[in-house]
Amino acid sequence: MKDIIIAIDGPAGSGKSTTARLVAQKLGYIYIDTGAMYRAITLAFLKSGLEFNEKNICKLIEKITISLNYTPQGQITLLNGEDVTEAIRTNEVTNLVSPVSAIHCVRNKMVSQQQMMGKNGGVVMDGRDIGTVVFPNAQLKIFLIASIETRAKRRQLELLQKGVNLTYDQIKKQIIERDIYDSTREISPLKKADDAIEIDTTNLTIQEQTNLIISLAQKKILEINNE
Ligand code: CDP
């Protein structure tokens, strides 16, 4: 059986990570959350106490290692071997991750690492530029969207479950700012690949959107293995 690469892109709160994880579980594929890698660099930068500029960040990323480990409980993010899975989800990291991700050297390093991680297929990779830059030849590309109101509500619930109490308006503002940053940056902006299938998840449950992508993936896997 030949395994495929599934790219899932979209803005914050569109349901990428939950869906990608469940799709990977069902297919027996590895789920790769590329946002966690950009978050880990942002955390390393915050810990360094350095002034925010391109030169400092490019120097810093030469000295750090970011890796992802896969356990039955999910993806673990390691920064210099230390488990930072929880630490990369703070509001401080979220507020700075988009500017850090827009820097050339950061993208070059992360994109090549992601290409290595997915080169043998059998992966569901989620992010902003997977279908456009990391794997433009991915056999299945999904672009998830949802209304800003739905995305902000989803994120608020997710944060509340982690004990983070931000207002709906604060979250909505943060998401809008990140959307603008991510989709207008010079390199690898967030945008739908021409051959991606767009799914609006505003009125879909996680189960519905997961089932939809699983059936698209199964069709694609059959097609490729019958070629
Ligand atoms: O989960 P959420 O949608 O909040 O974001 P994430 O997937 O953890 O990604 C955090 C940030 O990393 C995004 O807002 C982007 O700025 C950046 N990112 C990126 O530039 N390219 C990717 N492939 C993945 C994330």
Task: Give a description of the structure.
There is one protein chain. This protein is an alpha/beta fold. The chain has one domain (5-215): 3-Layer(aba) Sandwich (Rossmann fold). Helices cover 52% and strands 17% of the residues. The protein contains nine helices and eight strands. The strands form two sheets. A five-stranded parallel sheet has the order 2-6-1-7-8. The chain has a three-stranded antiparallel sheet with strand order 3-4-5. Strand 4 (74-79) and strand 5 form a beta hairpin. Bound molecules: cytidine-5'-diphosphate.
The order of strands across the largest sheet is 2-6-1-7-8
Q: Please, what is the average pLDDT?
A: 95
Distance between the termini: 12 Å
Number of helices: 9
Question: What is the C-alpha radius of gyration, as a whole number of Å?
Answer: 17 Å
Weakly predicted, low-confidence segments: none
Task: Compute the number of strand runs.
Answer: 8
Query: Which fold name fills CATH's third level, the topology?
Result: Rossmann fold
CATH H-level superfamily title: P-loop containing nucleotide triphosphate hydrolases
Overall SS class: alpha/beta
Q: What count of domains describes the coordinates?
A: 1
> How would the global form be characterised?
globular
Strand percentage: 15-25%
Bound molecules: cytidine-5'-diphosphate
Task: Report the major sheet.
Answer: 5 strands, parallel
- CATH top level is Alpha Beta
The helix content is 40-55%
CATH architecture: 3-Layer(aba) Sandwich
Question: What is the element string, with H for helices and E for strands?
Answer: EHEHHEEEHHEHEHHEH
